[in-house]
């Protein structure tokens, strides 16, 4: 049936799922080769293929949504359900890290000296860079909400300015976390504390990087007038994801940085 007779989007045949699968395969194969032989070209090629696929696939989705009118209200409802489900899966992902943290910290094993933090681990000061990063990320949550309301109310200048603030704050957060990792007095191999700390905060930092890229794409689309008051789900998805990142960081700061110290 033609798309003219129903509200659903029947996508055209696309090569990008195939190239994405090839990129993931090359990353897996390249990772194994790198671990055994320190040969990184296959791994880098996989990342290159996956990155290019991501860019061109997103380009096609933007064209379908903005210029071809395929994202009807029914399609947008499905996209919203998909984004919410994705965020729920990310919550489960971080719950595993918090479970590992509390399992080890509430009843420290004798191998850790029956203490938390373990003996020999010099922890970070929660009231220095972590507290500053908390203020930065909460501020970015406020600016992205400001941008959302500005889009809904048709205030283009405010939406651009506030979204630019959000992207800059995300970059500052990532830069400060890199500096914190560089100066940290313990490594990921320093007992279960180091493992849980770097896995939890590292994956959160990766999510901040993804969210910043997501918002940067939205900023570019906003500059080119691709969002309207009633058609801006791409920005809504990015803002939901960013608020999720904010909430996870609050739990990380309170549990791992402050209480865990």
TrEMBL record:
<protein>
    <recommendedName>
        <fullName>Cytochrome c oxidase subunit 3</fullName>
    </recommendedName>
</protein>
<comment type="similarity">
    <text>Belongs to the cytochrome c oxidase subunit 3 family.</text>
</comment>
<feature type="transmembrane region" description="Helical">
    <location>
        <begin position="196"/>
        <end position="220"/>
    </location>
</feature>
<keyword id="KW-0812">Transmembrane</keyword>
<feature type="transmembrane region" description="Helical">
    <location>
        <begin position="127"/>
        <end position="147"/>
    </location>
</feature>
<dbReference type="GO" id="GO:0016020">
    <property type="term" value="C:membrane"/>
</dbReference>
<keyword id="KW-0496">Mitochondrion</keyword>
<dbReference type="InterPro" id="IPR000298">
    <property type="entry name" value="Cyt_c_oxidase-like_su3"/>
</dbReference>
<keyword id="KW-1278">Translocase</keyword>
<dbReference type="InterPro" id="IPR035973">
    <property type="entry name" value="Cyt_c_oxidase_su3-like_sf"/>
</dbReference>
<dbReference type="InterPro" id="IPR013833">
    <property type="entry name" value="Cyt_c_oxidase_su3_a-hlx"/>
</dbReference>
<dbReference type="GO" id="GO:0005739">
    <property type="term" value="C:mitochondrion"/>
</dbReference>
<feature type="transmembrane region" description="Helical">
    <location>
        <begin position="79"/>
        <end position="102"/>
    </location>
</feature>
<feature type="transmembrane region" description="Helical">
    <location>
        <begin position="41"/>
        <end position="58"/>
    </location>
</feature>
<feature type="transmembrane region" description="Helical">
    <location>
        <begin position="240"/>
        <end position="260"/>
    </location>
</feature>
<dbReference type="InterPro" id="IPR024791">
    <property type="entry name" value="Cyt_c/ubiquinol_Oxase_su3"/>
</dbReference>
<dbReference type="Pfam" id="PF00510">
    <property type="entry name" value="COX3"/>
</dbReference>
<keyword id="KW-0560">Oxidoreductase</keyword>
<keyword id="KW-0472">Membrane</keyword>
<feature type="transmembrane region" description="Helical">
    <location>
        <begin position="159"/>
        <end position="176"/>
    </location>
</feature>
<dbReference type="GO" id="GO:0006123">
    <property type="term" value="P:mitochondrial electron transport, cytochrome c to oxygen"/>
</dbReference>
<dbReference type="GO" id="GO:0004129">
    <property type="term" value="F:cytochrome-c oxidase activity"/>
</dbReference>
<feature type="transmembrane region" description="Helical">
    <location>
        <begin position="16"/>
        <end position="35"/>
    </location>
</feature>
<dbReference type="GO" id="GO:0016491">
    <property type="term" value="F:oxidoreductase activity"/>
</dbReference>
<keyword id="KW-1133">Transmembrane helix</keyword>
<dbReference type="InterPro" id="IPR033945">
    <property type="entry name" value="Cyt_c_oxase_su3_dom"/>
</dbReference>
<comment type="function">
    <text>Component of the cytochrome c oxidase, the last enzyme in the mitochondrial electron transport chain which drives oxidative phosphorylation. The respiratory chain contains 3 multisubunit complexes succinate dehydrogenase (complex II, CII), ubiquinol-cytochrome c oxidoreductase (cytochrome b-c1 complex, complex III, CIII) and cytochrome c oxidase (complex IV, CIV), that cooperate to transfer electrons derived from NADH and succinate to molecular oxygen, creating an electrochemical gradient over the inner membrane that drives transmembrane transport and the ATP synthase.</text>
</comment>
<feature type="domain" description="Heme-copper oxidase subunit III family profile">
    <location>
        <begin position="4"/>
        <end position="261"/>
    </location>
</feature>
């Amino acid at each position: 049936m033609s798309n003219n007779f129903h509200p659903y989007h029947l996508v055209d045949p696309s090569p990008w799922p195939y190239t994405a699968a090839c990129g993931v395969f090359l990353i897996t194969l390249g990772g194994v080769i790198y671990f055994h032989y320190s040969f990184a070209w296959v791994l880098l090629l996989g990342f290159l293929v996956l990155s290019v696929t991501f860019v061109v696939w997103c380009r096609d989705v933007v064209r379908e949504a903005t210029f071809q009118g395929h994202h009807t209200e029914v399609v947008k409802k499905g996209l919203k359900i998909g984004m919410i489900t994705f965020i729920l899966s990310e919550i489960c992902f971080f719950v595993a890290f918090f479970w590992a943290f509390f399992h080890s910290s509430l009843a420290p094993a004798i191998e850790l000296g029956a203490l938390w933090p373990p003996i020999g681990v010099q922890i970070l000061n929660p009231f220095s860079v972590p507290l500053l990063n908390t203020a930065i990320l909460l501020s970015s949550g406020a600016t992205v909400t400001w941008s959302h309301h500005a889009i809904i109310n048709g205030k283009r200048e405010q939406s651009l300015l506030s979204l630019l603030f959000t992207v800059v704050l995300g970059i500052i957060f990532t830069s400060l976390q890199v500096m914190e990792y560089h100066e940290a007095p313990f490594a990921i191999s320093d007992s279960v504390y180091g493992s849980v700390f770097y896995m939890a905060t590292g994956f959160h930092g990766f999510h901040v990087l993804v969210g910043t890229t997501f918002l940067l794409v939205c900023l570019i689309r906003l500059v080119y007038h691709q969002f309207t008051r009633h058609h801006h789900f791409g920005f809504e998805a990015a803002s939901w994801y960013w608020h999720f990142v904010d909430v996870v960081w609050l739990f990380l700061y309170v549990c791992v940085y402050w209480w865990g110290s």
